[in-house]
Specification:
single chain; about 160 residues; about 55% helix; 2 domains; alpha+beta
Length: about 160
């Protein structure tokens, strides 16, 4: 029997997804583990974990297990999440079309993320953005868990302004 996974753990991992790390769910324990590119490379090259600092040795052993067993599932990566699309959807969701159009204009081209971050503050919609983003990450996490047939608990998901996030 698979354990119940904490939805918040999956959401937190998705929010921290990046190019240097990979997040995995241990199907036996429900624990989310973060492995660096270096740790995965060490496991792939079958390097001795003892050649690494103490703080990395356990993760290299886990990385070896990720490669050799089916006990782990890789969580969606930053490429699966499409944060740019989430920004676009936020722009389109705003009731104030002038603000939505201005934000949408600012996310075109190189440097979109930086311009967007500045604009949400200057246009005073930062709180709405963070709530929207949190809801999207929760939706992505739930869709992934349900697709994989994994039971999850919402007990640990925080509330923001009276709305579950």
């Amino acid at each position: 029997m698979q354990p119940t996974v904490k939805l918040k753990d999956v959401i937190d991992a998705l929010e921290m997804a990046g190019g240097e790390n990979r997040n995995y769910l241990d199907k036996r324990t429900g624990e989310v583990v973060v492995l660096t590119k270096e740790e995965m490379s060490a496991a792939e090259e079958d390097e001795d974990p003892a050649d690494y600092p103490d703080w990395q040795q356990e993760n290299i052993l886990i990385a070896q297990e990720v490669l050799e067993t089916d006990h782990y599932l890789e969580l969606p990566t930053q490429f699966d999440i499409h944060e740019y699309k989430i920004m676009e959807d936020f722009c389109l969701s705003l009731d104030d079309r002038n603000v939505g159009n201005e934000l949408h204009r600012r996310i075109k081209g190189s440097g979109a993320f930086g311009r967007f971050k500045g604009a949400i503050h200057s246009l005073e919609v930062a709180d709405a953005w963070y709530a929207f983003r949190a809801a999207e990450f929760e939706r992505i996490a739930i869709e992934w868990l349900e697709l994989e047939g994994i039971a999850y608990s919402r007990d640990d998901v925080t509330e923001v302004e009276g709305k579950e996030m």
